[in-house]
Amino acid sequence: MSLEDKFLLNFFHNNFDTSLLSPDELEDMIRNTNKEIQKHIESQQGKYDEFILKEKKLKSVTDNFWENYDNSNMSNTNILWELKKARKLLKTHKNIIIATGSGMSQESGIPTFRGSGKLFSSKELEGAVPHKGYQFLLDYCKDKEYFVLTSNIDCLFNKAGFDENRTVETHGNYNRLQCVKNCSSLTYPSTKDMQKCPECGDDLRPNILMLGDRYWCSKDVKVKEEKMDKWIEEKLEDKILIIEIGCGIHIPVIRNYSELLLEKYPENISLIRINPDYPSIPDKFLRFRQGNRVSTSRLEERCILALQSILP
Ligand SMILES: [Zn+2]
Questions:
Q1: Domain containing residue 252
Q2: Domain check: are 193 and 241 in the same one?
Q3: Do 257 and 283 lie in a common domain?
Q4: Helix (H, G, I), strand (E, B) or coil at 287
Q5: Cα(104)–Cα(156) distance, rounded to whole angstroms?
Q6: Same domain, yes or no: 122 and 58
Q7: ∠ CA(57), CA(62), CA(63), 5° rounding?
């Protein structure tokens, strides 16, 4: 007996005294009820298909993640747990700091400091296009409040559509120029026409911080940093999530900043660290706080795949 027949039998048994019906009426009734049941099943089928589709989609993302995952340092259970924590953190926070290092630009074809061993050319920078990880983040941030903090000079966040006023580029960016002597603490948009400093007539250079750079003009960055500090103070009570991507340990400016905030405001700051080489978070930050509140997640993966796997 099919499930359908069973349902039908049960239906009649409980609701009707079929002995009162003529054989024709009984047949009609069975036919109509059958139609109703079929309709009901069909209406549920849509929902069921939708559910299966979602499951399949989720599975393909997860499978993709596993295929590309190098789990030499983390067990599978850990990875699942870290993914779960990351998703939860993304879901429960409204205030976001996106903190990135050279690993974030890598998938847009810009080599990391460590990977290249040389500085990139301005042609490489101008030609670089933001990869889809930027779009994932932008979509995620559309109903959030955010700041971007990056040591990258490639302007990829601005190219992708992030608010320039909320993007703090700690090492400057290649799109602005300054006087080689930094005579005025002013910077200028990079255009072909402007070759010399309008203040003193000396040469202009990109407003990018080099190693041991005494003449770098840091004024633009300072202004935005102050704005961000103020914003952090305002939002602390409401809690802030740092999504840190591709910040290595060789020039760990941004990485240190995340940990500094975590150390200073342990109850109010959470951190998702995405890094294929150095995903670790110091033990002192891994403990549970406030009962079961989760405050960190580490993902040993490149930017695009990691974001694809955790963003809603
Ligand atoms: Zn000058």
A1: 75-171+219-310
A2: no
A3: yes
A4: coil
A5: 10
A6: no
A7: 95
Q: Could you tell me if 156 and 17 lie in one domain?
A: no
CA–centroid distance, 194 to ligand 1, in Å, is 12
| CA 207 to ligand 1 center in whole angstroms | 13
Is the domain of 59 the same as that of 197? no
Residues 243 and 167 grouped into a single domain: yes
Q: Which amino acid is at 267?
A: E
How remote is the CA of residue 156 from the centroid of ligand 1, in Å? Answer: 28
Q: How many domains does the chain have?
A: 3
Instruction: With 0.90 as the threshold, say if the pTM is over it.
Output: no
* pLDDT values of the chain reduced to their tens digit, one per residue, 312 residues: 455 555 555 555 555 555 556 677 767 777 777 777 777 767 777 776 776 677 677 666 666 655 555 444 555 557 778 888 899 999 999 999 999 999 999 888 887 654 444 455 667 778 889 999 999 999 999 999 999 999 999 999 999 999 999 999 999 998 899 999 999 999 999 887 788 999 999 999 999 998 888 999 999 999 999 999 999 999 999 999 999 999 988 888 899 999 999 999 988 999 999 998 888 888 777 755 445 566 899 998 889 989 988 998
Residue 215: closest CA among 259, 180, 169, 250: 180
Residue at which a domain ends, from 28, 51, 67: 67
CB 156 within 8 A of CB 130: yes
Residues around ligand 1, an ion, CB closer than 5 A: 179, 183, 197, 199-200, 202
What whole-number distance in Å separates Cα of residue 286 and Cα of residue 143? 29
